[in-house]
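seq:
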Amino acid sequence: MEIRFTLFIVLTSLFCGIVSAAQERYGAYIPWTTYEAEQMTTTGSVLGPKYGPYQVETESSGQRCVKLTAKGQYLEFAAIAPANSLVIRYSLQDGPAGEGLSARLSIYKNGRFVDRCVASSRYAWLYGKYPFSNDPAMGSPRHFYDEIRVKGLQIRKGDVIRIRWDDGPGEYCIIDLVDLEAIAPPLKRPLNSLSLMDFSGNAFNGDYTQSLRDCIARAVLEGKAVWIPAGSFKLTGDILLPANVTIQGAGMWYTELVGDDNLYADANRRVRLKGNGSNIHIADLAITGKLDHRNDKEPNDGIVGSFGRGSTISRVWIEQTKVGMWIENSDSLRITGCRIRNTMADGINFCVGMSRSIIEQCTARGTGDDCFAVWPAVYSRQLFSPGNNLVLHCTGQLPYLANGAALYGGESNVIRDCAFTDITAGSGILISTTFPTSSRERGIDNNFSGTTVVENCAVKTCGGFDHEWGWRAALEICTDKRSIAGVIISNVHIDSSLSNGVSVIARNGQTLSDAVLRHVSVAVYGVGADGKYGLFIPAGARGRMDVRECSLGQVENEGKEFRMER
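struct:
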């Protein structure tokens, strides 16, 4: 089995290299083109750059955005490639009680009106201290942005697209960016499948929860797939996924499982696909929640649970849930081509008992915690020995809390060929022992072991201000509650770090050992804060790190018990 898995990793790496050969060397394959608002023609005002907490500019792409302050103001740009869909990343003023406000935006092509969409701040804006509140009186605002998706457009290369703020009770509308994408037609129903619509007689008031449950039960019994056609289908309760089930949609732009805003305050009435077996497959659909707060005592919505052995999650778009995916007790799970946007917490978290699983070609933007995390927690029984997980060719952008990719323990986990940009509330890449990974009662210790690897990654405009840790480095190793041994960081390129480029920090006298920094470059650092370094070792750090063939700029080692071999 080990030989087969190793071969799988090699072949996957080769395949991803071929797919992305014409794209960026680092990160996920991106099928859309991003147009930055500050580079457009506009009747509004360009804001930024600004660096620091509680500022909309800091949460903006490149720390710049455009503010429209009068009805009828607009921004416009020329398309550089054909497209039939777009995404607008925007920020509106919050309501006085944190309930949000709405506004209408119009889309024009070459001066002619083509569509109108409604923007809302209902699911944005959080306040106060972690895990935050919806009460504006708490101050310290964050999570300013949300997004709109529009399809069915006909945009040719050279067409001028205008986004205009039409009306709304707020005093402004801020636009950060617009994505244009040429999406394929909806997929057709596969052979040997049962359609959700065959069970729509059980749908009451547009609620397809029981219809989908019944369809899944019959499909498993008959050995068929579940087909969810194009359309929006309301779910108001858990969808349990047993072993040997396939859920197939018409595409992430076409099939949408959506929550009920009137019921979403009840944690048991949310959109939640819950794995409970092996050989589960989910593909080509979107999940849109209606969550407007973060409460870590509530269960996660999105995709959760255990996926046993040999499961896949492919081309799923998730927004406005607590997490995108919180996965436990899975071996050889593959998550491929997924998009996570605007969540209240993590994008994708490999948690309890995750073994030999892969997150590949996925993107996360605007998450409320780590974009991608591996945390071998012990709060419940682990069925597989955690380790040998891989984050491969992924892109993380603009979380309003925490980091791009974070490893919190386990054996020989790897981050490879990834890109992290605009991580302004934490590190682009973090290796840390902050969270618990051991249990004396169960005789389990999931601290770092084997060799943890970070290689071939690009980290740009990262290393922002964390509300508990202060300025994080763009790439940081944090020996917080435990020591860390066996780390290789190689071929990592850091540009425009907001604070330090690379840092090794410590608390409680913990130690870093058997660590190598090789072929790491730091182009610019201290963009958002003065007195920073390319490599910084603060007082209190202990241990040793070999620094080989690196271009780091100014290096500062204040750790009397920390040695750097160069």
